[in-house]
Every structure is written in C-alpha cells, then in structure tokens.
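Recap slide: ATP synthase complex subunit 8, sequence and predicted structure.
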Amino acid sequence: MPQLNPHPWFPIMIMTWLTLSLLIQPKLLSFTTTNSPLNKTMATKTSPWTWPWT
C-alpha cells in the first residue's frame, strides 16, 4: 500500500515544516500588534455568586 511508504511524504513534511518555521514565522512575528498590552493591576473586588437555591 503506498500510504505506508514514508519515503515521498516524509521529506515533503520536513521541508514544509522548515519553510513555515524558518521563513514565514519570522515575517509574521515582525508585525506589530494594534493593541499593545498594558501593565495594569486588577484592583476590582469581586463578590461570590449567591445562588437562590442555597
């Protein structure tokens, strides 16, 4: 059965993985995000939920 022969598919998989990780990923990571995360401290006090059946 040709599906069990890894010879033609394993090099294709490795080359695809290397292409994605070495060429495309740095280009995607170089984009700046539109909303940069801010260093905010969460100071909101939360109260526990009161269930009506307890």
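The mean pLDDT is 78.
Residues 12 and 18 are 10 Å apart (CA to CA).
(End of recap.)
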